[in-house]
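Q: Hi! First time doing this. I have a protein sequence and I read that you can turn it into a structure. Is that right? Here it is:
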Amino acid sequence: MDCSVVQCQRRKEFFLVQTVDFFYPLVDDPKLMGKIALANVVSDVYAIGATEIDKLNMIISAPTELSAEERDIVLPMIIDGFRESAQMADCRVNIQNIALNPWCIIGGIATSLCKQPEIILPYNAKDGDHLVLTKPLGIQLATNAHIWLNDKNENYYKLAEHFSDEIISNTFKMAIKSMIFLNRDAAKLMHKYEAHAATDITGFGLMGHAGNLAEFQTERLQFVITKLPILKNVLKFGEILSLDMKLRNGKSVETSGGLLIALPAKHSKAFCQEFNLITKGEQYSWTVGYVKHANKREAILAQEPEYIDVEL
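A: Yes, that's right. Below is the predicted 3D structure, encoded as structure tokens:
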């Protein structure tokens, strides 16, 4: 699933939780890119309920197409953003080397040493569970719209007939706000509200990751998605450009998305209320579906899902 969990041989009460993740820049601001990369790396650890990162090695390469002077400006800014968000996660960043590479690669290796009660393994969902999502969808299209705005290309002019530059920029700012937000609060609440399984939503979209989680369950279960919270304006962006089907089907690519958590139905409302309270409007959560017995382990989208406009 999201990361490896290995029982220590000499001290069997401890488990080594570790993940490695990296990607390529998707925003122009180097410091923001560092923040996004950090949130994306540690999210895999948070997805199994571990809330403390004991070691964090940063992976970063310097693109050869940049001059030495440009690299001297850009790389420290990426590292500063990564370190700043790492402080929010209460962990220190180790950087062993910075390699030259044709591409700029940013990511890291996150390690946590845990005892069994600190871990919620992702295969114990139950019939009747509710599914909670802790970040909105629509990140990719919101980010692309900002790129089109800067490039002034054909897609931008189509959007500009309906939206001001300010609205497009503000939608992008909401996407940034979501991407840099750590899933740590959600991981902590997973323990309080007796979560049975979870995963984080990234490149395979909500339905892709929900399907992957369903396939790993001990019981034969079906995950039914009934609601899709989407960043405000993004669904309309998609409609204008005929790019809305993946959003409507829950298959849009996400970056540094929220956690999808299966937990007892009796706790879903309280989880969302407390999450929305402790995040102080920086982020929200929603009950987006339910779990039921089935012949096949899979995730499906309800015939008429509800689309929720989300403003951060």
